[in-house]
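Spend some time on the protein that follows and explain the fold to me:
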Amino acid sequence: MASAPAFLLLFIMLLCSATVQAQRKIPLGSPLTAILIKNSNNTSWESESGDFAFGFQQIEKDGFLLAIWFNKIPERTIVWSANGNNLVQEGSKVELTISGLFLIDQTGKQIWSTTKTPNTEVSYAALLDEGNLVLANQDSANLWESFNEPTDTILQTQTLTLGMILVARYSESNYSSGRFHFNLSDKGPRLYKRAFPTEVGNTAYWQSNEVSSEYQLTFNQSGFFCLEAKNGTILTVLLSSTTSSSERDFYRRVILEYDGVLRQYVYPKGDYSISRLKWSMAPSTSIPSDICSNLTENTGSGSCGFNSYCKLGDEQRPSCFCPDGYVFIDPDDKIKGCRPAFEAQSCDKDSLDGDLFDLHTVENADWPESHYEHFIPVTEEWCRKACLSDCFCDLAYFKNGDCWKKQLPLRNGRMRSNYGGKAMIKIRKDNSTSKPGGTKSKGQDQPTMLLIGFLSSSVFLNIVTLVGSLVLFRFSKKAKVIQPYEFMPDMNLRTFAYAELEKATNGFEEQLGRGAFGTVFKGVIPFGNVSLVAVKKLDNMMKESEREFKAEVSAIGRTNHKNLVQLIGFCNEGQHRLLVYEFMSKGSLAGFLFGPLRPTWHHRMQIALEIARGLFYLHEECSTQIIHCDVKPQNILLDDSYAARISDFGLAKILNTDQTRTTTGIRGTKGYVAPEWFKNMPVTVKVDVYSYGIVLLEIICCRKNFEAEVDDDTQTILTDWAYDCYASGKIEVLVNKDDEAMEDMKRVENYVMVALWCIQEDPSLRPAMKKVVRMLEGTIEVSDPPDPSSFISFL
């Protein structure tokens, strides 16, 4: 019997040996040469499956790139490269020696080499089926891996650790280092634009702070690009693929592209002779979703070059354009920006070319951080004249009574349909390139004298008097009905007239939903083009005075968190109280969670964490502590990327700085209301914690908290059923038909335990939302929860 363990060990060693032998080993001295002949045995090494190849690829007519690529698909998509900044020519070679891999150009000069552990000899190389090129010693221990030195792409099973960096290529066909980096710092992963051509980071335009002290990024087999703690706990999913087929049916890659956006792509495996097969971007899998808006620099050019503007096109891809009167400096390299195609206005005091210029209006475009003067409140016509009369002004931007004068070079240019405002660009009339400062010809004298005579005549004076009277009459009538835009001080909250919101909603025609305090309608607020909004009309039972209403709106208006729906403005006119929010295109969590297309388990985990972070912000991080009072799936909305955003907190209970509790009438929705509301006890932020616990159970189980029509009566009340399953050790019953969750039962149990702590009858036993966030992230351990009270809020 003593020989059994030895036999087992021998069997395992034989299996490992077979695995190693299954690798296609490349022995020392194997040649690779850069030649124009395609499919030559001397130009690439393949992985065992043939999915990947390593070797030379010709980059147009510029030279050869030493790279790894997807080998079976027609595109031969490159995922790693060694010499993007220094292409080599035909005749260059790769040498595999005991010291590593060496790239030698056609003149014999060393261009690139691997790094390896000192005093250890390389025995062979191998390109693994995951796309990882490794150098190994005679004991099959890896001395160097391409996965540890990524360029711009991450493949499945690849992990990024602290200090690693992705560098975008310069352009689609230029593999030299570009302007954008993605790195893992001790403060979290971030995307930033570097001060090109130096390596110094200039502007971070996206950063995730949701990390533990030690974390890593993993692109797992399920297609999730995740932030993970070192113990394997998923902190957040950055990018994901929603394909329902097995991961074996798709190739996947995550790439930091040359436009600065991190994207995930999928490619179906199969008959590659089918012409329609191609890489497609997985839905809602790009960071950031709108780089045109996200990237604003104080000293750089922005997402596009100077004097150009960025606009999202198909699949939300940014493209760079020149405004009218401007042309690209280099049409083959648009990121170098644009230049005027005319001679600039002269500032010579004797110049006569001022009349040769006009302003071309571009709706919904702006070049932020390019201004040198700002005026408010003024009219659009005043703004136009001020720029035309100023030889330094190259562009005037007008919006809601604000006028900015801007001058070259213009930076951070962007265009989007809901920006509002007008960019008025100064250009020469009729694309004139006339020289400034000339004298007038004699041919101009006679018309000029005739004009002067007309201007001095009584007929002209009578016309001016009549037209002036008509203008004053029309203006006095309009002044009675048109109200100027007003904004709350210290924040960008706009005040709306009731008539304006009534018109914007077409008489409050399309109802989006009804909450505890009012009804929400879909509206269109004109800002140049149109912008969708959600207008909440509060019930008449609200009796706050104008001062109290504005104080609460002011506090809400100062909130700023990615998991809260943003308040745009309000109406406080007579008896009318309305709130205007940004419109969430994907609807409510209730519709998504309880509908036919429920989210995946990983997506539900992410939504649960996002809601918790939003409540944590309301309770502890914003300037004024806010109790939401009505946390439920109907009040959790989903943005364009299906990220969770808490809504309907416009008239939640706001605590003073010296308050931790308050007394108020029962607020909320049956099924989510904490027990203390019914006991006339002072309420605290723990009422939101209770409601969150109910919502968390609904997210876990993909069902409502009360369902009368169930096969088993013990499952009618979700809280009772969840605790019974937990107490009996049968948590898997809660996710019985969810294969993805069934494969992650440890985390399912963890989430159920957190929910049970949140719904304790005694508020003091419920954890604060900060602790809830940490428990969900896995940074602190969750202890066994006691039995929640049998008191149920909807009885």
Q: What stands out?
A: The longest helix spans residues 458-481. The mean pLDDT is 80.
